[in-house]
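A favour, since you know our structure tokens better than I do. Just paste the record in under my message, thanks.
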Amino acid sequence: MISTYQLLRFTRSFWLALGMLALFFVAFAFYVHAEKEIDRVNDIRLKSHSLAAELRQSSDDLTRMARNYVITGDSNYKDHYKEILAIRDGLIARPVDYHEIYWDLVLSDNKRPRPSSGEKIAFLDLMRRIGISTDEFAKLAEAKMNSDALALIEKAAFDVYESKVDTPEIRKQKAINLLTDDAYRAAKAKIMLPIADFHRMMEVRTDKAVNHAIDFAVRLRLLFILVGAVLIFVLWKSYQSLQFTLGGTVSELRKQLDKLGRAEFSESIAVPQGLEKSVLGLLSVAQVELARGDAHRRSVEIRNQRLTQFYNVLSQCNQAIVRSHSEPELFQQICRDTVQYAGIQMTWIGIVDTEKNVISVAAADGLGSDFLFDQLISTEEGSAFASDTPVLAAKDGRAHWCQDYLSAATPELWREHAEKLSWRAAASIPLFKNGSVYGVICLYSAGLNAFDEEIRTLLVELAMDLSFALNRFELEAGRQRSRKMEVLRSFMLERINSSVSLELFFHDVVKHLENVIPGSKCSILLLENDGVHIKAGATPSLSVTYSNAINGLSIGPGVGSCGHAMHSGVRVIVEDIATHPYWELYKDLALDAGLASCWSEPIRSSNNRILGAFAIYHSVPTKPDNGHLMLLEMAAHFLAIAIEKNRTESSLRKLSQAVEQSPNVIIITDTDAKIEYVNAAFVQKTGRTLEQVVGQRPSILQSGKTPLFSYEDMWDSLRRGENWQGELVNRYVDGKEYLELAHISPVRDVDGKITHFLSVQEDITDKKRTEERIQYLAHYDVLTGLPNRVLLEERARFAVANAKRTNSHLSLIFFDLDHFKNINDSLGHSTGDALLMELAQRLKETLREGDTISRLGGDEFILLLTGTDEHGAERVAEKLLQTVGQSYQIGQYDLNISASIGIAVYPEDGEDLETLLRNADTAMYRAKQDGRNIFRFFTQEMQARSGRHLELVNALRYALERNQFQVVYQPQISLDTGIVIGTEALLRWSHPDLGNVSPAEFIPVAEETGMIISIGEWVLRTAIEQTKHWHDMGWRNLGIAVNLSAIQFRHSDLPVTVTQILKQANMEPEFLELELTEGVAMIDPPGAIAIMNDLHQRGVRMSIDDFGTGYSSLSYLKKFKVYKLKIDQSFVRDISSDPEDKAIVSAVISMAQSLGLQTIAEGVETEEQLNFLREQKCDEVQGYYFARPLNTAQFEAFMRDRE
């Protein structure tokens, strides 16, 4: 800080200088006052002498007028005489500069030489005004009195001259004598003596005052000079103190301050010794602090920029996760995005093989990624990679960071690449699948310490997202496997139960599995009856040489995959034939046949006897996944069934063709219900052999869950000799329960006596489940478990009939979820489905037992409330809004939704479900229009509106082909030049029956029905072709603005369509401006940016319409490729009376100017609005003030008038 001594020194000098300056001004003021006093005294003296001379002059003028009158007889002289007396006595106004008037110079036209001043004042009063002394005034009063006495003589001469006593000559002579004799001259002299005394007295008094003022002024001059000298000295001392306080010159300080203002910190400020606490010293300290702060700010900016890059990467990767359909596709996209958007030098993703202890590269991108694909990274202890981050992350399942990669324990080859490719920091994060480490994602940056805490957090989050995607892929793969398994199961069961031969069955199975497993070759090998030798069952895709070579081989240990599997009875998986010991003797044969791997599954009979082996080959070394193993097992199982079935059928055919060919379980018992015979189906399905069950009762199959009355009914029928049919719940030997349909008939001998009972049993477990499932699917929604429309209609019919019978009410509530599509689009359908299931559960818990909640599909739900009038429905709707509006925790997302509800009440709003449903739907759409998250009851007004809507829909379908549309044009004016720079194309619809329909009414209908696409394209084509025509007419700089609807803008073909129309019309794209409302742009900002960029690259200009009515973000506005903002007419309309509208318009124009955008105001109707917009520097305007929307001819006439 500046020292106290410096401040006191400068302050003391400053206040002393200020005091001396004040004293200087006081002395100067007194001096000026003295000089003015001298001038005032001289002025009084001049005026006094002048007025005294005026008294003398007026006396002389009276004498002249009197003498001229009596000599000439001219009455003008007498009039002048009287006028002079009247002026002196204040009876008439004084002339200007009276002392310069000489009455003998009055012109012949009797006009005075000076105009009147307008002031009536007597001579003595005038003398009092100027401020003379009492004695001086007495002298002038005496002279005035004597002058008045002389005037009496002159009036006497007038009387003589005008009398009738003597002849005119005598009267004239007598009058002349009176005005020239000694008495007259003596009276005249009495006037001059007091005037002379007055002049003398005035001179004495004024000389004394002037001399006194001069003396005072001289003394003040001396004081003034002295104070000035002292002031100069004090100012010099103050300057020295200021220099000491500042530490340098003002110019030097300004120079240093300019540097600080420009953030130039490279050259430090030099401070002279002893002035460290001066202002310059403080600037030096401030420079150091500012330089430190600037360095910190730059580091923060760089850090924030990298964070932004990584957030962008996270966003791009999340999109890749959503869009990718396989791991390779996802991994490659992730690598590409991290390199492209985060400035990462190189990224690779490796798969961890825990059996081989290696990490293999699955995807890579960036500098040096090519050499990675030849690398196998060993995870074994002691390997060169043991301390590298990928291996550490794969082993302990945690992220590892190396902020100085070249200093870490890195393999030599990788170090060389790192030095060459500027890998300075490395990060490895594990990827998980099903809770275990599946792989690692590794990133390499060019900067040391590149991975700070926040970036590490983002990368870990990225790895978690990838792990989630891997689990999702796994689940999807599981579903695909299940589907394939089910298809295979159905196929094989169908073929097993068909009448095809076993050889054809083998062939079909093999070909089917080869289609299921791309790139595979399948075979079925059978074991000869001797249990030793192999014979080919089906090898359609294997070479003839290979098939002949293996035919007849003996099974045993190490005899290939199939020979070993049939010998050991266990599955054999050989991933690489060339290296596996089981194929040592046969690998050349296999490799020559193009076989590199072989997975073999033994085919076992129901009694665990080896029947053969099923094998899957690949032309490259391949490891099976769980799906492949399940397919192996299933194929072998069904092949065993087929083989056993074939063999059993052949055996049973010898005993009983009819019985043995039955696919159902057949049991023959004696009359005591002891089993004498069971068929193969029984053995196959129950797991019990004939030997095990003969002599036993069928009750060994009982589960204890069949109702007792079923058995009682069965025996009652059998004892009566009747057939019995029913369902029994039995149990297999492994404890598995199943449902069978049993047909039991008594068998009679030739005498008609019952000797046996024949039971034909069919396992209908799957069939029953299928029927129940079909029944369930027919009446319930699969996702939520809620009743569907079919069940709703059944219950509604019953509810309506009951309400009609009991004369009660019934309410139908129709609601859907607001903006639910956004959740599906942004978070995925799985998240949306989970939300719907959670909502369904809440609704079930909320409603009464007798009410029905049904899902119609998507996000639409129906509530059927029995015995509920409008008041009850209102309470339910309010409760429903609360229930729906509660937060939903779906996975990692905390979601909030709302509902729009429509209510229809029976019987007022309909007497059947269809009518109630339609009216509730209409009320629901009114709720959406009124702001959403509310409910509305159906009204007749809504029905009328619905009818109007339907009428518009039907009329719109033919409006375009019947030429009912017209494009009109509203001029756009430049405020700078007043020239028409363009026009906005507006659509009008004139229907023969409906009349002129407002765009506000039919445009939403066109958008809703999708007809806006064709209508919008027609408007665009018409406007462009018309504009090109005007260009050809000479208005070559005229632009055209066309509005885009939300549906048009989101249409994928928009840029191509616009380009084609421009090309067909042969019009340059820069004359076309596409207007997009602010709200439409903010529905999907990234998508809007992409479309705008495409149109911008094609040369088409974009503008934001109705700006200020939406919720756009300034960050997005900067990214939008727009050049103009259109101020909505709602702000312009009240701009002259509403301060808020004024402020909004001013802010929009100012913001647009700062962003380098133009502005145009619509709806300008008054000159006041126009002047305000001109003051605010708005670029362009349009509105009724200039012209309404015009048809083509009107617009051309308007343009000619403007010219």
The mean pLDDT is 82. The domain at 967-986+1010-1202 is CATH 3.20.20.450 (TIM Barrel).
